[in-house]
Amino acid sequence: MKHRFTAMFCMLLVGVCFLSAGATAGKAYIWHDKDGNVHFSDQPPHSDEVGGDIEERQFKETPRKETAAPETPRSPIEHAVRCTFRLKNKKGGASGFFINDTGLAVTAKHVVQGATYSMKAELPGDKRKYRVRILKKSKRHDLALLQVAVKGSTPYLEIRDPKTLVRGEDLWAIGNPLLVFKETVTKGSFSRMFPEEDWKKEVKMRKLPFKIRGDQIQFSAPVIPGNSGGPVVDKEGKVIGVVSWGYSSAPINFAAPISYIEEDFASYLQ
What we know:
Blueprint: H1 2-12, E1 16-18, E2 21-22, E3 27-33, E4 38-41, E5 50-58, H2 76-82, E6 84-89, E7 92-98, E8 104-107, H3 109-112, E9 120-122, E10 129-137, E11 144-148, E12 170-175, E13 184-194, H4 198-201, E14 216-219, E15 231-233, E16 239-247, E17 253-257, H5 261-264, H6 266-269
């Protein structure tokens, strides 16, 4: 079983990608590397990685009439959708969500890596765009803390310790795939807490992808570029992790445990 497990992951590594979306909503690149493996990514590959033509696809968002969010959410998952927003700037964007009623929010660090203060948040049912300030980026984990300049109180997600999850437990990922399909909800299950040391022991990787450290939550809810930074919640709508990265060729995705914000951003959470 161990050899089958390792072989499966080696094959899937050709499809690994971050899950933030490019500057133009819905731009995607499909290309072959020099070994003939197919890749799907939201950023153009480096020339030394490509073994053939690069196919570029662009998705345009269809304008729609905004409607006010209902006063009372009809389910915990609907409440989680209301707590999640689309995050954008000229370089791209993805998703984020509120963790208190004063506009404090969380996203994935790679979503805001290199971003400026021109970032804007677009809330469900609201035509306005709110200024976003990056308070802190984690040095170790794929997490970043934001302050969204919203007047009045914001809906927010309660936090659950991911160590209490049970294998097979239902989970929902919420976000903005390709920045086009806003407020998207996908359902899957919790697979396991993937220990950092298992990347070397089981997957035979010398170090974690993209310099991410710490344990990861493995889950099966479908996510694609644009989902990054969005919450992964349980049936009660409590957040257990932040969508980070995954494999484009299989329902094997990973989230940064939400519990890490307590050590990374402790001074802001008091």
